[in-house]
Design a protein that fits this description.
alpha+beta, 5-stranded antiparallel beta sheet, 4 helices, 38% helix
Length: 129
């Protein structure tokens, strides 16, 4: 499904929708996916983890988290500069991206503990700080 000349969306097998935008300078594809909105009582906890996760850009392969506006839900983003990429590489990138998004959704929506969803995240953060 295509939205515009430089934007589009891909619906995956699990019905998740990944927004795809062509970014220039440097040329890349920017993938984004909605992670959901945290319950009011967990907002501060979730927002703190979203910010901390950005510190782990090396460990996450460049994945970033953000908010979709002041009252928006959490988002996962990835800038992919797959020059001369094959269809198989794109499928792998989308599958991996969606897998991480699923882990985030479990954490945000279900209220699962950090260690349940991201077993090594705590140690990675303490190693970096």
């Amino acid at each position: 499904m295509q939205h515009g000349e430089k934007t589009g969306a891909v619906q995956l097998e699990d019905e998740s929708i990944v927004l795809v935008e062509w970014g220039g300078e440097p040329e890349r594809l920017v993938l984004s996916i909605d992670l959901g909105e945290p319950p009011e009582e967990r907002r501060l906890e979730v927002y703190q983890l979203l910010l901390c996760y950005n510190l782990l850009w090396r460990e996450s392969g460049g994945l970033k988290t953000a908010l979709g506006g002041p009252d928006g839900g959490a988002m996962l983003l990835y800038e992919w500069s797959g020059e001369q990429a094959t269809l198989m590489e794109m499928q792998t990138v989308l599958a991996n991206f969606n897998h991480v998004a699923g882990m985030w959704r479990s954490y945000i929506v279900s209220g699962a503990g950090i260690e349940e969803v991201f077993p090594s995240l705590g140690s990675q953060l303490s190693d970096r700080v």
